[in-house]
Amino acid sequence: MSIDVGNIVEGKVTGITNFGAFVELDGGETGLVHISEVADTYVKEVSNYLSEGETVKVKVISIDDDGKIGLSIKQLSKDKKKAKFTKAPKKSFDDMMSDFMKESKERQQDLQQNLENKTGR
């Protein structure tokens, strides 16, 4: 299988450093998951997220002229989130607006009643 930018592939973590993790891909090629591409949150220690020998799915994000392969785990979760938010809403806009107006009116009535109870009206 050829490795191209944008591919999602599986590999085995072969080494962890303070700047990322090396992942061996099918075909024996090795790529680097930079520390900034490990997770959506701040990563202080790569070893808190990955361990040697672990099999991971990664996205190929770059291949430079020297053949160095840049990988990302973080971008896989972003792709999933993107897909989640691009789905069409189950309700029509009018239905959602109607629900919002109803909830808003109920909240205003509750607030008004609480205010009246506090002031003794």
UniProtKB/TrEMBL annotation:
Gene Ontology biological-process annotations: translation
Single GO MF descriptor: structural constituent of ribosome
Composition-biased stretches (Polar residues): 110-121
SUPFAM superfamilies per the UniProt record, alphabetical: Nucleic acid-binding proteins
InterPro entries listed in its UniProt record: NA-bd_OB-fold, Ribos_protein_bS1-like, S1_domain
Residue ranges, annotated region (Disordered): 87-121
Gene3D superfamilies: Nucleic acid-binding proteins
Domain S1 motif residues, every copy: 6-74
Basic and acidic residues compositional bias, start-end: 100-109
CDD domains to which the protein is assigned, alphabetical: S1_RPS1_repeat_hs4 (cd05692)
Listed Pfam families: S1
PANTHER family: 30S RIBOSOMAL PROTEIN S1
Functional description taken from the UniProt entry: Binds mRNA; thus facilitating recognition of the initiation point. It is needed to translate mRNA with a short Shine-Dalgarno (SD) purine-rich sequence.
Protein name: S1 RNA binding domain protein
